[in-house]
């Protein structure tokens, strides 16, 4: 894993630079609204006034979403050059299109945007775990000692990552996913709701694990597995990852 790590000493802060005072959330769907609620919860916990928050979305034409303005398409985050220095960005769209999430994240990094970790105060992250940047960690998630996570991952509510797990970049864990100890998830893996991965299993790049699956053995790159125990049902072309 080549990502920059952030030491999670006690309660990991929402973002690394305390000068950030406004947030641009890419996507106003469920993921984006969840990211906004995480930011609200973090500032409320610290008894701070709510910051400026705005959404970017390619299809949502509403002027306001949950009280925050939609100010343009997602490309605005990359193309505009006049973002204030204290602006933090959250990539919160694309659970069904991980390559698009990865592409936009890389463009933001190339432009020098400050892509933040949005971490709910009701999540638990061990001080010996480490994270990259741009991750969204929702309420009641647990990350155990010596687990490592890359960049631009999304952990939905009540997902658990056990000791010594290694999670690559751009990984999506749906609600209630449980990873046992020593699991390796390579980049762009999607894990469906309430799936479980047993100890020491390796899941290859771009693999998809279906909802409720119990994975007892390694999963090849680009493979889709379902069932109990999980079995492969198809494999995508790797150039589509």
Layout of secondary structure:
Elements: E1 6-7, E2 22-26, H1 30-45, E3 52-56, E4 64-65, E5 68-69, H2 76-79, E6 87-91, H3 98-110, E7 114-115, E8 118-119, E9 124-125, E10 130-131, E11 136-137, E12 142-143, E13 148-149, E14 154-155, E15 160-161, E16 166-167, E17 172-173, E18 178-179, E19 184-185, E20 190-191, E21 196-197, E22 202-203, E23 208-209, E24 214-215, E25 223-226, E26 231-235
Describe this structure in words.
The protein has helices at 30-45, 76-79, 98-110; strands spanning 6-7, 22-26, 52-56, 64-65, 68-69, 87-91, 114-115, 118-119, 124-125, 130-131, 136-137, 142-143, 148-149, 154-155, 160-161, 166-167, 172-173, 178-179, 184-185, 190-191, 196-197, 202-203, 208-209, 214-215, 223-226, 231-235. The protein has 241 residues and is of the alpha/beta class. It folds into 2 domains: 12-118, Rossmann fold (3-Layer(aba) Sandwich); 122-234, UDP N-Acetylglucosamine Acyltransferase, domain 1, CATH 2.160.10. It is globular, with a radius of gyration of 17 Å. The strands form 6 sheets. An 8-stranded mixed beta sheet has the order 8-11-14-17-20-23-25-26, covered by helices on one side. The protein has a 6-stranded parallel beta sheet with strand order 9-12-15-18-21-24, with no helix packed on it. Strands 3-2-6-7 form a 4-stranded parallel beta sheet. Residues 1-17 have low confidence and may be disordered. 43% of the residues are buried.
């Amino acid at each position: 894993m080549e990502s920059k790590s952030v030491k999670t000493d006690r309660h990991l802060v929402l973002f690394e630079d305390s000068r950030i005072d406004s947030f641009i959330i890419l996507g106003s769907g469920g993921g984006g609204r969840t990211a906004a609620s995480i930011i609200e919860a973090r500032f409320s916990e610290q008894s701070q006034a709510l910051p400026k928050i705005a959404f970017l979305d390619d299809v949502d034409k509403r002027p306001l979403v949950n009280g925050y303005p939609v100010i343009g398409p997602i490309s605005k985050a990359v193309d505009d050059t006049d973002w204030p220095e204290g602006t933090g960005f959250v990539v919160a769209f694309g659970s069904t299109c991980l390559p698009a999430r990865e592409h936009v994240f890389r463009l933001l990094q190339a432009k020098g945007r400050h892509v933040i970790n949005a971490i709910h105060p009701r999540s638990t992250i061990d001080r010996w775990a480490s994270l990259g940047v741009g991750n969204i960690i929702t309420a009641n998630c647990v990350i155990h000692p010596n687990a490592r996570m890359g960049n631009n991952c999304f952990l939905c509510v009540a997902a658990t990552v056990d000791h010594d797990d290694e999670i690559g970049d751009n990984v999506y864990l749906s609600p209630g996913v449980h990873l046992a100890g020593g699991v390796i998830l390579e980049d762009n893996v999607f894990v469906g709701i309430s799936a479980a991965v047993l100890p020491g299993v390796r899941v290859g790049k771009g693999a998809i694990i279906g909802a409720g699956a119990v994975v007892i053995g390694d999963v090849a790159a680009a493979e889709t597995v379902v069932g109990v125990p999980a079995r492969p049902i198809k494999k995508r072309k790797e150039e589509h990852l």
